[in-house]
Design brief:
- This protein is α+β, with helices and mostly antiparallel strands.
- The chain has a domain at 3-352: Catalase core domain (Catalase HpII,  Chain A, domain 1), CATH 2.40.180.10.
- Helix content is 37%, strand content 13%.
- The chain contains 30 helices and 26 strands.
- Strands 4, 5, 6, 7, 8, 9, 10, 11, 12 and 13 form a ten-stranded antiparallel sheet that branches. A two-stranded antiparallel sheet has the order 1-14. Strands 2-3 form a two-stranded antiparallel sheet.
- A hairpin with a 6-residue loop joins strand 23 and strand 24 (757-762).
- Helix 2 packs parallel to helix 3 (153-163), helix 16 crosses helix 17 (650-677) and helix 16 (621-644) crosses helix 22.
- InterPro entries: A_dioxygenase, Catalase_sf, Haem_peroxidase_animal, Haem_peroxidase_sf, Haem_peroxidase_sf_animal, Oxylipin_biosynth_metab.
């Protein structure tokens, strides 16, 4: 189930001993199973996308072409396939019924991936789409040579790579006689050249006179496997000699022919006999007519017509854009064999790449070589001088090289993939609105994989899960919490303000949320230490266990346990769902036309006293401030768009404003919040480089050119890149963002004009249904000011908020620190030492290696038997962080991987971060705005309080009770 990117890099060998029977009587899967074969074929599909890019570059084309069959000769939609009335009884399957007739789309083409002259040596192809009904179609793909040059998918891709861009005779000769033998071996290269020569050397006078073979087999219901072919019907008119000067003579000949007469073919099938005479897995094997005579089953008629009318040309362009795929069929007619199974991944990837739905980023060879060299070098250097103590330039290179390592080794695919592949319907055309608007639930961000990152998609993994039920309660999580986490005295983070605490919860609510069972339906029970009791509900009886609702797990396959997969009930994308909602009904309920409902400038009240917004759990004053501020920001963007673009309708205004606000939030988090909590020049430069591009000095530019060419620009100027695993946020990411110590227990609300105290509150008095009474009474400006001048808690041991140690939520009374420990264990996140090792840090051997504080070391020894038992969250809190860091270096390693990934995977923050989608005003708004400007747009009276040379998340300038600012 869990495949690291490293495991994906294995290249499939040719057909041989690694293939074993796994698919019933006909098919054998590479690597021994459909799951292993799928991973191999996904890699081959990516290599075909790189072939497309290489062809585009060599041809100096504006757009990506098909990897094969780039030049269409004929494209019509009015052909007819009619089955014979005397169709053999055993072949009467599915849509194949005696006398049945169906409309057909036909595309005839040259086979090369380069648009070359028709008189150049080449194979020719035929693609049919038989339209049976509104939801059923069957694609039949054929070439005018009976067998493939390649026995299997691996050979097919290697040949394509070798021949990519070989658009001159000299380049073709070099590719065939020099490069091909080096890749597949001399013997196989000779066979492949022989097949290619046999298929391409014959001069073609008319595509109406050609025979076309499927090469691979398909299932024909209970009749078993067949190969199919088209051949000209008897009595077809001859053709003039092939032209040597007209680059488009094949089209001209068909156009002339169709003005005079129909073009008619017979569709024939050859039945499967046995594995020796009618091979399924070997695409280069001939099915001889003497072993399996062809049987005519239907007639294909392309009716007489004029191909040069405007309507015909329009249809031809439409057909040329279609993505034909042999898997566009039903299970009764599913494709069979190695090449066909590979085509499932290849056709989907290639067509999505050509249409701009999927992207691939070639890695220059120098980046791969230099990156691995620097990885080894910095591993040695880091033993002496850690990355954060290196000179700035070397530190940036160290971080970049290490991020490449993390991308290779720490992106684990948890999606449940279809293996073996199954037939499917023709993919619907992507709705035009979805190309330029975020969906409500996160679907269609990746247009080639609509469910990727959407609500309900599984959390990924950065480390392989370590699911240990025997250690769920070892050591007792209540004991761990009491001795190591509970706050005795508030430990402030003096470089930050409490807005930083509100901000990160505001963000986490956008990113992650695990579904819980209703309380009492399926609970976790934690045994309590001797002599301790707990009330599990407000006013409930004391009990000897602590009880709270369990998370709902995902079982990816029947009987697959344990449930180490969990669904995210938020979308994984950075899409502002905490403001806008994660489904259409919630989003629409929050709107008033294009704007968000804000009666009197406040969020609308809910029946339970908590405001109505996109995500309203765990509500407190810090969240109220953030939600109100960015709801107002949305409305301000709407007003600006209406003023600038008077033609925009309200729906377009809403969705454009949502794009702008969501991107602005991502920018603020990247270049303001994170540098505030990781307060070093190196991190500030690195994160600004993510958004804006790296510093323009020659040494940094040279280093990035050597290590990662794609880092030479900001991520917003690149294309989406998932780095080998479908995009998702991860369980490990959730773990490092457990930052509850940031929340203070006590709050003082002051007047921003005079500094006079308006009230002192405990957390429970500014939380839940009590929040809005305080927020509305003091006003947004005073709330912002009061949080801005106060410090949050430090992310360390013994600093978990007291208010969260007996916290009422959904009818339960919970100690949230215990819940955090238990959730991490039960989700299979490795314990701290394994977590470190999985992120390429040395394992700790002694408790003294975790922290330099002797009191912390003594406390760890008192709770844990060995360093390997230390809980992940405890170890992260106990670590001595680098100078200026608000959290540990180990947690930071997840951050440097996932921070850029959240931007890099999102097309609305990469390829579609452009004026055609955001409008010029929208991009300018994002460029000119930050957290300070958002605050001042809605509370201009706070200008004097904001820090002058630091971010809005640094401590603000307080007003003294006498109305004066402090000196300096």
């Amino acid at each position: 189930m869990y495949e690291t990117k490293q495991s994906r890099s294995a290249v499939a060998p040719p057909v041989g001993e690694r293939e074993v029977a796994a698919g019933g009587p006909y098919e054998r899967f590479v690597g021994g199973s459909p799951q292993v074969e799928r991973v191999i074929f996904e890699r081959l599909a990516r290599e075909l996308m790189l072939v497309q890019l290489k062809v585009k570059k060599r041809a100096k084309a504006a757009d990506v072409e098909r990897a094969f069959h780039a030049k269409g000769i004929l494209g019509v939609e009015n052909a007819t396939l009619r089955f014979r009335r005397d169709l053999p009884e055993d072949l009467q399957v599915g849509f194949a019924r005696p006398g049945a007739a169906y409309p057909v789309t036909v595309r005839l083409s040259n086979a090369s991936g380069v648009r070359q002259a028709d008189f150049e040596p080449d194979l020719r192809g035929a693609a049919l789409r038989v339209r049976v009904g509104p939801t059923e179609a069957h694609d039949l793909l054929m070439t005018n040579y009976p067998v493939s040059h390649a026995r299997n998918a691996w050979e097919f891709v290697q040949f394509a790579k070798v021949m990519a861009g070989a658009n001159t005779r000299l380049r073709k000769a070099f590719a065939l006689f020099v490069r091909l033998p080096l890749v597949v071996g001399a013997r196989q290269a000779r066979r492949m050249r022989r097949n290619v020569r046999a298929g391409t050397r014959r001069r073609v006078g008319s595509l109406a006179l050609e025979r076309y073979w499927s090469r691979g087999a398909i299932l024909w219901g209970d009749a078993g496997p067949v190969r199919y072919r088209l051949r000209p019907a008897p009595g077809v008119l001859g053709a003039p000699a092939p032209s040597r000067t007209d680059a488009d003579y094949l089209r001209h000949e068909l156009a002339t022919r169709l003005v005079r007469t129909d073009v008619v073919f017979e569709l024939c099938v050859q039945r499967y006999v046995d594995g020796a005479r009618t091979a399924i897995e070997n695409g280069a094997a001939v099915w001889r007519e003497s072993d399996s005579p062809p049987v005519v089953v239907a007639t294909l008629t392309i009716p007489r017509q004029d191909l040069d009318t405007a309507d015909a040309r329009a249809v031809e362009l439409l057909v040329d854009e279609m993505a034909f795929d042999p898997w566009n069929t039903t299970e009764e007619f599913r494709p069979l064999g190695n090449l066909n199974r590979a085509r499932r991944a290849a056709y989907e990837a290639g067509s999505a790449h050509r249409r701009g739905y999927r992207f691939v980023t070639p890695v220059p060879r120098r980046n791969a070589v230099v990156g691995r060299f620097l990885d080894g070098l910095f591993r040695v250097v880091d033993r002496v001088v850690p990355w954060h103590r290196l000179p700035r330039g070397l530190g940036l290179l160290n971080l970049e090289a290490f991020r490449q390592v993390l991308r290779r080794r720490n992106l684990i695919d948890t999606e449940v993939h279809e293996a073996p592949p199954q037939a499917h319907r023709v993919s619907p055309v992507v709705d035009a609105d979805l190309r330029t608007r975020r969906s409500y639930d996160g679907t269609w961000n990746d247009l080639s994989a609509p469910r990727m990152g959407a609500v309900g998609a599984a959390f990924g993994r950065n480390l392989a899960p370590d699911y240990r039920p025997d250690l769920f309660d070892v050591p007792n999580p209540v004991l761990v919490s009491r001795r190591l986490l509970h706050r005795d005295a508030f430990i402030p983070a003096t470089s930050l303000n409490v807005l930083a605490a509100g901000w990160i919860q505001f963000q986490v609510h956008d990113w992650v949320n695990h579904r819980r069972f209703p309380a009492g339906l399926q609970d976790v029970e934690v045994p309590l230490p001797r002599g301790m009791t707990w009330r599990n509900t407000p006013g409930g009886a004391p009990e000897r266990v602590m009880r709270f609702a369990d998370n709902e797990g995902m079982w990816p396959a029947e009987g697959a346990e344990p449930p180490v997969l969990f669904a995210n009930t938020a979308s994984h994308w950075w899409d502002g769902s905490e403001v806008y909602g994660g489904d259409a009904s919630v989003a629409l309920s929050l709107r008033d036309g294009a704007q968000l409902r804000l009666p009197g400038g406040h969020l609308p009240a809910g029946a339970d006293g908590v405001p109505l917004t996109g995500f309203r759990d765990n509500w407190w004053l810090g969240l109220s401030v953030m939600h109100t501020l960015f709801a107002r920001e949305h409305n301000a963007v709407c007003e600006a768009l209406r003023s600038e673009y008077r033609h925009m309708d309200e729906e377009a205004v809403y969705h454009t404003a949502r794009l702008v606000v969501s991107a602005l939030i991502a920018k603020i988090h990247t270049v303001e919040w994170t540098p505030a909590i990781l307060r070093t020049e190196l991190i500030d430069l690195s994160l600004r480089a993510n958004w804006e591009g790296p510093p323009q000095n020659w040494l940094t530019q040279l280093g990035l050119w050597l290590v990662d060419e794609h880092a030479l620009t900001g991520i917003t100027e690149t294309v989406p890149d998932h780095h080998g695993a479908p995009y998702s946020l991860t369980e490990d990411f959730v773990t490092v963002y457990r930052m509850h110590p940031l929340i203070p227990d006590d709050y003082e609300i002051a007047d921003h004009r005079t500094g006079h105290l308006l009230g002192s509150y405990g957390f429970r008095e500014v939380q839940g249904m009590a929040t809005e009474e305080v927020a509305r009474r003091v006003g947004l400006a005073n709330a912002l000011y009061s949080l801005g001048i106060a410090h949050p808690g430090a992310i360390t041991l013994h600093n978990y908020p007291q208010a969260l140690l007996e916290f009422e939520r959904d009818g339960e009374l919970i100690d949230l620190s215990v819940v955090d420990l238990v959730r991490t264990r039960r989700r299979g996140v490795p314990r701290y030492n394994d977590f470190r090792a999985g992120l390429h840090k040395p394992r700790v051997r002694r408790f003294e290696d975790v922290s330099s504080d002797p009191d912390v070391v003594a406390q760890l020894k008192d709770v844990y038997r060995t360093v390997d038992e230390i809980d992940t969250m405890v170890g992260l809190f106990a670590e001595n962080p680098p100078a200026g860091f608000g959290f540990s270096d180990t947690a930071f390693r997840i951050f440097i991987l996932m921070a850029s990934r959240r931007l890099q995977s999102d097309r609305f923050l990469t390829v579609d971060f452009r004026p055609e989608v955001y409008t010029p005003l929208g991009l300018d708004w994002i460029d000119r705005s930050g957290m300070k400007s958002v605050i001042l747009r809605h509370c201009p009276e706070l200008a004097a309080s904001l820090p002058r040379k630091a971010s809005a998340f640094a401590p603000w300038v307080p007003m003294m009770p006498d109305g004066q600012r402090p000196a300096g």
